[in-house]
Each structure stands twice: as C-alpha cells, then as structure tokens.
Amino acid sequence: MQRLTEYGDRIADELPAEFYREKQIHWVLDIAEDGMSAKLLNRKVPGRQRDQVLSMPVPYVQRSGTKVPPYLLVDTAEFVLGVPKKAKDGSVTEKDRDEAWRRHAAYRDIALRWASGVEDEPEAQAARTFFAAGPARCNLPEEVEAKDTVALMVGTRWLHQLGSAQQLWAQEVRARKGGGTERTGLCLVCGEHRALLATIPEPVKKGAIPTAGGSNEGQLISINAPAQGREGATQLVNTPVCHRCGGRAMAVLNHLVTSDRHRRRFRDDGVLLWWTKKPEPDSALAMFFDDQPDPADIAHLIDAMNNAPTPAAAQRTDADAFYALSLGLNNARLVVRDWIDVPLPAAKANLASWYADHGVWDGWTGQTRYFPLWQLALCCGRWQGERYAPDSAPRGLEAELLHSALHGTRPPARALPLLLQRVHADRRVDPPRLALLRLLLNRSPDPQDHLMPQLDKDSDDPAYLCGRLFAVLESVQETALPNLNTTLRDKYFSTAVNAPSITLRRLFADSGAHFKRLRRDKPAAQKALEKRLFEIYSKVSDDLPGHLTDVQQGRFIIGYSHQRHEDMARRQAATERKNAAVPAQSQTAPDTATA
Q1: Which of 14, 88, 264, 346 is 20 to 30 Å from 386 by CA-CA measure?
Q2: Could you tell me if 503 and 495 are in contact, meaning their C-beta atoms sit under 8 angstroms apart?
Q3: What's the CA angle centered on 22, arms 19 and 25, to 5 degrees?
Q4: Chain mean position to CA 182
Q5: Angle of CA points 173, 179, 183, to nearest 5°
Q6: C-alpha dihedral, 558 to 559 to 560 to 562, nearest 10°
Q7: Mean pLDDT across 115-119
Q8: 10 Å Cβ neighbour count for 408?
Q9: For residue range 168-206, what is the model confidence (pLDDT) as tens digits?
Q10: Which pLDDT does position 98 carry in this prediction?
C-alpha cells in the first residue's frame, strides 16, 4: 500500500477525484437554471454501440446493509427519482415502494446539504430550489429502471464535477468509513498520526479480476468476523490505515486494473499489475507483457544485460525500482498471490535471462525465436488440428511461469510431465514446446541439463544423442520414401523417447532397406546420410539407455529437434547453392549465334 500511494502521488492528474469511480450514465436529469423544472434525458445505448456509452468518474463508496445511504448527486434511479424495484412479473410491493421513498428522501437530504452550503454557485442554487420543493418532479418514461444510474446537470455543467461537491463527498466518506467513534493513530502506510479508517472505503471493481467463480467486488483488507482479527478485533482496529492512504491506494488499484499498459489478465484466473518508481518505464518491461514481443527488442535486451555492469554497481547508479502485484479473487476478498519489489536493473536482468533460457534456433530462418508467456503456457494444452485448443492450458500455469520469469527462479515442477504428456499424446514437437522444454532444462540445478539453442555436435549425453539418431533415421526414411502417409515419427516417436534402446536398434537395422534404395536412386544423399548416421550411432551404440527419466526425455526431444533443424538448414543451403549455380552456368555459356 505504501508503493501504491507513492505511485498515486505521481499520477494524481490521471486519477479521478477522491472517492470517485468511473461509471456508465443511463439517464441525465437536466435541471432548469431557475430550478423550477427538470427533464429526463435517455443516454442508454444498445450493446452493439458501446462506443457511444456516456461514462465518467462519479461519487462512489462501498455500501452495504438494508438501510444503505445515498451517494452525492449521482446515484441509481431509486435514490434520485424514487423509482421502486420491480418483481420479475413487473409488480411492485408496498415494501419496495416505501424503501424507494426512504432512499429518495435520504438522497434529497444530502443534495440539499451540499447545495445549502454553497452560496456562490448558481448551479447549486438551482439544485437547491428543485429539491427543496419536494420529491423530484419530471416525467418518468416506462423504461426507467430502479438500478439505472442518473446524473444531474444544470445548463452545461455536471453537478458532481463541481469542486464543492467533490469536497463535501470526501468529507462524507470519511465520516462513514471512520466508524461510530473518531479514531486517530499512527497510519501503517504513511507513518503519520492521522484520523483512521474503520473499513476500506472502496473495493476493486466487479469483473476487474478474472475468476472461475462468481465475479464480485473485492476488498483488499476485510476483517468482519472476530475469528479473522487478532484478539477478536474486527474491521481495521489492528490494521491502522488513514483515510488518505486507504482511498488513494484503492484508487490506484482500480486505475491499474483498467490500464492496458500496466495490467496482465491471466486467461483462467487472476491478474498481475506492475509499475515502476520513476515515470516512463523502460520499454523492456512493456515488451515482456506484450502478447507478441519484437525479436529485435528481445535481442537488444539480452545483449544489454550481457554487457551491463555488475548488479551491485547497477543498483548504486540506478535508483529506479520495479513493482508487481499478482491478485486473485476469493468471493469478495482479494488474494495477494505475489508481491515483487526489486531494483529495476534486477527485474530487467531476470527478463533477459528468461528469454535467453528459452530462445529456440529456427533452421529455416536462421534466427532465434522467442515466445510470449501465454503461448508457453498454452503449448502444454491439447493440439487440435491446426492450433492449440483454446482454454486447454493447465489451470494456473501461466501465472506460475510469470512468477518464474519475474523472480528468475525455476518453473513449476509440474510443467515438465505435463509437457511430455502432451508431446506423447499429440506426437507433436513445435517451437513453443521446444522453447518451454529448453527453459525447463536450462533452469535445472544439474549443469548437464543446460543445452545450447542450436545443435551441439560435441555433446556425449546418451539421451541427446538418441534424439539426434532418431532424427537422422527419420531423414533417411523421408529421403528414400518421400510420399509416405505414416512416418517414423508417427509410429515410433513415443516408444523411442521412452525406451530408446530397443526401438533405435530395430530402426537402425531396418534402415538398410532405405539405404539400398538411396544407393540406387540418390547416391549422393545416401553417402551423406549414412556417414551422419554411423557417426552418431558409433557414439552411443554401446550405451543405448533402456529407459529415460522425464529430464532425459526432454534432452532426447531437444536433440531430435536440433538435428532436424540442422538438416533443414543443410538442405536449404544446398538448394540455394544449386539455384545460384544455374544462372552462373547460363551466363558463362558461349553465345551460339555469335559463334
């Protein structure tokens, strides 16, 4: 809350007035300048015309109970106009009618209290004349509902935007949220002796935090039962927060959860909010939270971190800091899942390490590919024809990977078996899955698991060599029988990954038939493939493992992918040389006509 209030002081111009919140306006009560009459203007719009919605910050505070108090000037039609709630069949009970009039009377009282205290604003005097005459007088269209929001206007000015209205509303909220008795003390947030809140005045907006359960407004601090509080004390008795800090912190939270730049909504549950101590945060942070980061920006970040000063030196020269808050929602209470408060250079170093650990070399383009967070989580889901099935990623995995990236720690232990399960089930190894697999191995405490982004010809790891061997055997089959419907990978990949000894010896023996065909039809390819196959097989033939652990299976798959990309790059280079040689020969050929 200290960091939130500090950030709020910095962006005060972007925040609404104190205890104001953005709301959609459905009706406008346009009061005449003499206050003798008013007309109701309809500002409802169909769902397909959301761009025409009238929305603005209006007075707001959390209210509950049966005798809820009114807001100042902007409230529901039940308060502003005395419109009662209706049952599903359209009927109105006497109880609901009486409650509507009670609420309207309370609304008129606070409106008159404000207008009576302002002598130099003609708009306030017009409102005073209008409400002093009794219940609101205007024609009520049938489509007005009790829950519709109604705002007041005199001439061209919104009454709730007047400085006097904002001042009175702030005083009113402090009186309501200060409790029955005025309490002062040391605020834990600002460290000053001030009037203290009894409850937090504003929750996080309904729907702002994705949740699998019912969407509710969420309170950051909520102690409303003796069992929840220390020594049985409820509300904020043991959590002293002053009015200013409580209101400002929640206003900043609601600002962040609606920000496209400083918010990351998880696809299944929760949200992450981030900001920096100084203004204009580095683009590296915004890039990380982008759905499609630019590879050039990532390469620049990695290069900058590799050439940066030591962390100790960087912290002495850079006073900026990075903050990140991960929130979930449990009924009507916010759950703080993670809180990060680190120097900005450390945060950038963690992000650079994240990209360096999962970058995948693409043999077709000759470049290293990087993947956004959501794609690394989704690749553990089910492959469905031409894409991953939506919402098939394991629940909570994206948030766990985000924690790993920001803290520079190992990904969750469950990620590797989940990924291997999908690889075996789908028989698919694509760049996102390869990137996640490389990340999981590169963050292993065993240095043997740390693998290069490209083919490592010097590696003598049996699992890695088995993967390379299977890739070459697959290339032999593809070259000899290019139009097969069912390939080696379709039939034997899963068994080769699990039990390479039996599978690879059998496939190596069966490759003789393919080499016989190649010797007849493609002798050059036969020599190159046979040399490559025997070179790898000779390194591992005496030590073919019978079964592989999960980590060894990961090294097998990466070795397989590295060899495949190497073969692709080799074939592409050969094709380019061949194409380049054809024009050269045509240019050097003699001109027969001249001869």
Answers
A1: 264
A2: yes
A3: 120
A4: 41
A5: 105
A6: 80
A7: 88
A8: 17
A9: 999 999 888 877 677 899 999 999 999 998 888 888 888
A10: 93
DSSP string, 293-352: --HHHHHHHHHHHHTSPPHHHHHHH---EEEEEEEEEETTEEEEEEEEEEEHHHHHHHHH
- List the structure tokens of 575: 């094709």
pLDDT at position 93 is 92
Contacts of 46 (CB under 8 A, 6+ apart): none
Residue 72 CB burial class (10 angstroms; 0-12, 13-18, ≥19): buried
Contact 570, 548 (CB under 8 A): no
Q: Are the CB atoms for 253 and 204 separated by under 8 Å?
A: yes
Q: For the chain, what percentages of helix, strand and coil (3-state, to nearest 5) are there?
A: 50, 15, 40
Contacts of 67 (CB under 8 A, 6+ apart): 102
Find tokens 């078996």 and name the residue: 417
Q: The tokens 């009560």 sit on which residue?
A: 29
Tell me which amino acid residue 247 is. G
- Kindly give the residue spans of alpha helices, DSSP state H, lying in 137-258: 163-177, 243-256
Q: In terms of pLDDT, which residue wins out, 588 or 297?
A: 297
pLDDT at 265: 87
> Residue 165: enclosing H or E segment and its boundaries?
helix 163-177
- In the prediction, which pLDDT does 75 show? 95
- The letter for the amino acid at 260 is D
Q: Which of 439, 432, 301 is nearest to 369 (CA)?
A: 432
d(CA 7, CA 457): 52
Look-up of token digits 């980590």: 551
Q: How many residues does the chain have?
A: 595
Locate the DSSP E strands across 246-310. 263-265, 271-276
Give the C-alpha separation, 156 to 149, whole Å: 19
256 CB-contact burial (10 Å; exposed 0-12 / middle 13-18 / buried 19+):
buried
Q: Which pLDDT score is estimated for 592?
A: 43
pLDDT of 281: 60
CB 154 within 8 A of CB 126: yes
Q: Position of tokens 């979930």?
A: 328
Whether 40 contacts 140, CB under 8 Å:
yes
The lowest-confidence range among 98-102, 150-154, 343-347 is 343-347
Q: What is the pTM of this model?
A: 0.78
Reply yes or no on whether the pLDDT at 215 is more than 80: no
DSSP SS3 for 368: strand
Q: List residues bridging with 275 in a β-sheet.
A: 323
Per-residue model confidence (pLDDT) at position 311: 54
